[in-house]
Design brief:
Helices cover about 65% and strands about 5% of the residues. By secondary structure, the protein is mostly helical. It has 2 domains: about 10-95, Arc Repressor Mutant, subunit A; about 100-230, GntR ligand-binding domain-like (Four Helix Bundle (Hemerythrin (Met), subunit A), Up-down Bundle), CATH 1.20.120. It is elongated, with a radius of gyration of 18 Å.
């Protein structure tokens, strides 16, 4: 039975960790995948805010493709709940309600609480070293006020934890939940709340290092509750062509 392709959210995490996010995915990547990855990256990195209109012709001009290809990409993003398609208005970055955000965070607390409980019982020295290296990257991005870097790294932390259990289904679920919650949480994170989140990640890793499952679960639940409390909307209208133009 063929292996199910990774979700766009998980593919984005992989691309971001290897330094290729938004770079087009190489010659093998289709134009549709390139557009999907570029728009997803721009959302995660706060360059496209909720409610931003995604004009088909502008996107087609940026990538040098037909509007049919753009429409395919927007349809895929709509299925992933990152884009909303409206008959009269066209496509725009999704703007989930606060109630939907609460539901997403409720699911994250249930899933990620169980995740760290299990991980506390089996985490290895090599995995702890990987987490400490990740925390150093987070700390550096927060100190530099690297908004896109810190947003990506703070989100990636949760997928790294999931993958340490060797469960790709769990990793995909966490990545997909992050894509949805980032639209109204991580995208609006101030430098202060980002620094606070990074400190909470340190505490979670310390609990895992002690193999203290109860503390790890409590700290993860508190961390997600803290992120949820810091939700705030501040929509801006960017230059769509400038945001999506391939880098380099």
């Amino acid at each position: 039975m063929p292996r199910k392709p990774a979700s766009p959210a998980l593919r984005l995490v992989d691309a971001a960790r290897s330094g290729t996010a938004g770079a087009g995915g190489g010659p093998a990547a289709s134009s549709t995948d390139q557009i999907v990855d570029s728009i997803t990256t721009a959302i995660v990195e706060r360059r496209l805010m909720p409610g931003t209109r995604l004009v088909e012709q502008q996107i087609a001009d940026v990538f040098g493709v037909s509007r049919t290809v753009v429409r395919q990409a927007l349809n895929q993003l709509s299925r992933d709940r990152l884009v909303t398609l409206e008959p009269a208005r066209g496509a725009c970055v999704a703007m989930p309600s606060v109630e939907e955000a609460r539901q997403v965070f409720e699911v994250r607390r249930m899933v990620e609480g169980g995740m760290v409980r299990q991980l506390a019982a089996c985490i290895t020295g090599a995995q702890l070293a990987e987490l400490r290296a990740h925390l150093r990257e987070e700390r550096g991005a927060v100190s530099r006020v690297d908004v896109s870097g810190r947003t990506r790294l703070l989100a990636d932390f949760h997928v790294v934890l999931a993958r340490m259990l060797g469960n790709e289904v769990l990793a995909e679920l966490v990545a997909d939940l992050l894509s949805r919650s980032q639209l109204i949480a991580l995208m609006y994170q101030s430098a202060h709340s980002a620094e606070h989140s990074q400190g909470e990640h340190v505490q979670i890793v310390e609990a895992l290092e002690r193999r203290d499952a109860r503390a790890a679960v409590r700290l993860m639940e508190q961390h997600l509750a803290s992120v949820e409390r810091n939700l705030r909307l501040d929509p801006r209208t960017p230059d769509l062509a400038a945001v999506l133009r391939p880098r380099g």
